[in-house]
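[#protein-structures] MJ: dropping Histidinol-phosphate aminotransferase here for a structure pass
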Amino acid sequence: MKAKEILKTMKPYKPGKGIEEVKKEYGLDRIVKLASNENPYGFSPQVQKELPRLISQLEIYPDGYAATIRQKVADFIKVDEEQLIFGNGSDEVVQIICRTFLEPGANTVMATPTFPQYRHNALIEGAEVREVPLVDGHHDLEEMLNQVDENTRVLWICTPNNPTGVHIDQPTLQSVIDRCPEHVLIVIDEAYYEYLEAEDAFDSLGAIENHSNLMVLRTFSKAYGLAGLRIGYGVGQPEVINVLEPSREPFNTSTVAQAAAILALDDQTFIETSVEENRKNKQAFMDFCDQNDISYYDSQANFVLVHLPISGDEMFEHLLTKGFIVRSGEALGLPNTIRLTIGKKEDMENIQEEMKQKIASGVK
Ligand SMILES: *Cc1c(COP(=O)(O)O)cnc(C)c1O
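AK: finished. structure tokens for Histidinol-phosphate aminotransferase:
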């Protein structure tokens, strides 16, 4: 057998530790998972209530065109139905974009660290990956534009950026889009869009009207709390969507995911409550950091990347023994950092206490 050469250098995605795994390993009853930016308040009770009805007719293939959720999302974000492509999570939309635009001889430009799936899928397609280090948590957009040449096919922009949580403001992003050559597809990944509260946030959907080489990615996995069902989407001008469609599997989003997403979209109260709770708890966490000389990036998402006086792995291991799963930044090339999802108030108070104690004992 002969697989693609590049795969020898790649590893499968390593998920954060699972809840059951940690429970067993440390003999704990309750685990608080703050590792994957999931919604700590779950998902809409409307979805919960209707689930038995949604799980019917499983013998029938899903609607491959996702017509009902398509219409719903189009109305909600005020675009045409032909401007949407749905994926088995926005992860799959990333994969579809890579399958469509990337090949050996082509290159793609992105920040580092950022969401790892852009790089991963680009490598599998045989493209050259040009990674531009973040500067103080922010995309170095000028350098990213410098890296663009005639063989660049896709420019990835993640805002708010995972794992730093910082966003890119309107004038900055507008200027990048205006200056980026038109042969390059610009993908703006807005997985944390619902949490973005900055007044200078970029109007990405508005920009699509004037830029045929722009796509925006959104998901039901984060604020909507449907990560387990896998559904997300991309928005662009119909011409881009048409180019992507042949690379999409015919039945890539499930019947249940489509139906749940419709109900979830109708329950904006759940989103508002989740966002408000996140805002309060995030502020309290940042206040805690200020009081304890822990520096952090000002996050517009539901997670915060903090800089510690000890190694990220050490803090990760310590928190694990106390029943908290976070992400160490060490593997991301961010030494002495952890990324933690903002959880419920009480859990945050407890984790703050644990962090404080660990730091006090670690730096003595
Ligand atoms: C979580 C995440 C996604 C993937 O979300 P799915 O829709 O669950 O595939 C995409 N981009 C970023 C930046 C994320 O953090």
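MJ: nice. Residues 268-291 form the longest helix (24 residues).
AK: one more thing. DSSP finds 13 helices and 13 strands in the chain.
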